[in-house]
Design brief:
Nitrilase/N-carbamoyl-D-aminoacid amidohydrolase; 6-stranded mixed sheet; alpha+beta; 5-stranded mixed sheet
């Protein structure tokens, strides 16, 4: 954060679970309340460096202590928390020969959260959410100009899916996408893809991390966003009235499976 602020960053995004990267029961041992030490430190850093901060995600303890939430928090330059998003889509998959069961220790959130910082509207998401375009379209419909994606995207999926999905979310919603991804091997042996990047509303990658821990910085030209939306007004061309109809087979009847 100090390096980013020194480079002129006014909004900083950290990766998913930047404070504690584990799974299962061990993950629960690191769960904290929102007033816990990790976010207290993040609020201090926001004030110290005078930045708006998306504190990636942290492992938030549920009131009963039995489960957790995967929680992303937006902090203002004065250190105040202004938005709290709990990851909606939990990572229960098998990829690269490894089974992931995020739901064993976590509960899903139940709503999108649109924050605001530095006069800009920010749609908040976490990692696996990236595969669900409905969430990002809800943000576009609510006026999001920036979308943040703190992540620990796996090496197995990241090499093929990370960049295409980020660029797709930027293009289809005509918004800047700021994606901070964990990188390297974690204590549990899992590996994250890295390649954090910033993508503009045209789908152009403005900055991308090399393979290693680093900071990437880019200028976000909000006038460019306005030009993209004005010249190619795809968001206003949507036809929700048509999408609700059942899809038809070539013979003209509703298909079945």
């Amino acid at each position: 954060m100090e390096r980013a602020a020194a480079a002129g960053a006014r909004l900083v995004v950290l990766p998913e679970k930047w404070h504690y990267m584990h799974a299962g029961e061990r993950l629960l041992r690191g769960a904290e309340a929102l007033e816990g030490p990790s976010l207290s430190a993040a609020r201090h850093w926001a004030r110290r460096f005078r930045i708006a901060l998306v504190a990636g995600s942290v492992v938030e303890r549920t009131p009963d202590g039995e489960r957790s939430y995967n929680t992303s928090v937006l902090i203002q330059p004065d250190g105040e928390v202004s938005a709290v998003y709990r990851k909606i889509h939990l990572f229960d998959v098998e990829v690269g020969g490894t089974v992931y069961r995020e739901s064993d220790a976590a509960l899903p959130g139940d709503r999108p959260v649109l924050g605001e910082a530095l006069g800009r509207r920010i749609g908040m998401s976490v990692c696996y959410d990236l595969r669900f375009p409905e969430l990002y379209r809800a943000y576009a419909d609510s006026g999001a100009e920036l979308i943040t994606v703190p992540a620990a995207f796996t090496a197995a999926t990241g090499r093929d899916h990370w960049e295409p999905l980020l660029r797709a979310r930027a293009i289809e919603n005509q918004a800047f996408v700021l994606a901070a991804n964990q990188v390297g091997v974690h204590a549990d042996g899992s590996r994250s893809h890295g390649r954090s990047m910033i993508v503009d509303p045209w789908g152009v990658v403005l900055a991308q991390a090399p393979d290693g821990e680093t900071v990437v910085v880019a200028d976000l030209d909000m006038e460019h966003l306005d030009r993209v939306r004005a010249s190619l007004p795809a968001l206003s061309h949507r036809r929700p009235d048509a999408y609700g109809a059942s899809a038809s087979s070539p013979g003209g009847r509703a298909g079945s499976a």
